[in-house]
Amino acid sequence: MKDWFKNRLNGLNGYLDQKYPDFEAIFTESDGDKKSLSLNKVLFKVLSFAVLSAGLLLIINLALITFTDRGGVFGDFLGGVLNPILTFFTLFGLIATIVIQRQELRLARHEYEKTADALSTQAIETTFFNILDLHHKIVDNLKVDLEELSYKSEAERALKGITASLVYSQLGESLSSKKTKVEGRAVFEEILTFLSVEAKTPDDALDRYKNLQKHHNHILGHYFRNLYQALKIIDGYEENKLTYEEKRKYSSILRAQLSTKELALLFVNCLESVSDSGQFKNLLVEFQMLEHLPIQKRKDGYSLAGSKVAIASEDMLLQYKEKKEIGVNLKKYYGGAFGTNGGVPYNLSPNKSMQPTADASTD
């Protein structure tokens, strides 16, 4: 008898396990965590036990009514326990409601996270492509006057301009066939040519570029500052917002916008002691921005992007092999609105004679 009851109990438990997936579908629409699954299984077995117990009691009651005269007594007993049974089903319904609500909240939170991720991605892409659009506008508006880049004095340039005006007024045409003012992307090629003129060594070309940035920073300064900020924004996103692979994807798109002449000038611009303390160069190393820069070995160095002379040395190339360790720059924090601007003395102190004094007269 004991073995028979044990086998029947095991069979019942196996039957409940088979029917559990149908019950679980009522409470869940997707795979939940292990705790949710365990609780659902317990509720299912409790409900099944309650239903089977009620059915068994009803069968016993019907059997007693049919075959004995004690059916009424058992009916009174069943009626007495009916209220607790109904209360139990009410409690079960409450628990089931809580489980369903929890599942709905979990799904709602999941959808909210997906929406938030989508909005975050959209915001990143909008920012990035706005930067690309600004980059193209800056390139289109670049202008350079080749006469301005010459080492002639202002008096010499003015005299040449007066002479040219007199000739033009007499002949009605320009005696010079060479265009002195260049706009757009052609500016990069002209400046690269300017660096190559009279440059016997890469250091000579570098000195010419430093002089260009010192006296004519308005030509390319804003271009490189915008490019630096674009890479800085890409690199600044946290890993949960933008993975390293996604950062590489955006930086590759940005790199694809640059011509070989731009890459050559970018190389020169980010050399040490030219633009900053190495922050810009570190971003170029991080995202391999110079990967498509044409470099050709020459006797006295390396030519870049088809330059006629060598404008890069091995020491310059080595600067881009690894990142530079950058310390804390206190001027950045104590320079006020000027930041690291080297033109402003670091140890300025207020002039007492210029300080306002309180009015000695009182009403």
Architecture overview:
This protein has 363 residues and is mainly α. The chain folds into three domains: 116 residues; 34 residues, no CATH class; 142 residues, no CATH class. Helix content is 66%, strand content 4%. It has a two-stranded antiparallel sheet with strand order 1-2. A two-stranded antiparallel sheet has the order 3-4. The chain is rod-shaped, with a radius of gyration of 41 Å. The chain starts with a helix and ends in a 29-residue tail after the last helix. About 1% of the residues have low confidence.
Please render the helix and strand layout as text.
Layout: H1 2-27, H2 34-67, H3 71-140, E1 143-145, H4 146-149, H5 154-171, E2 181-183, H6 186-196, H7 202-215, H8 217-236, H9 244-256, H10 260-269, H11 279-286, E3 295-298, E4 301-304, H12 314-318, H13 330-334
Antiparallel strand pairs: 1-2, 3-4
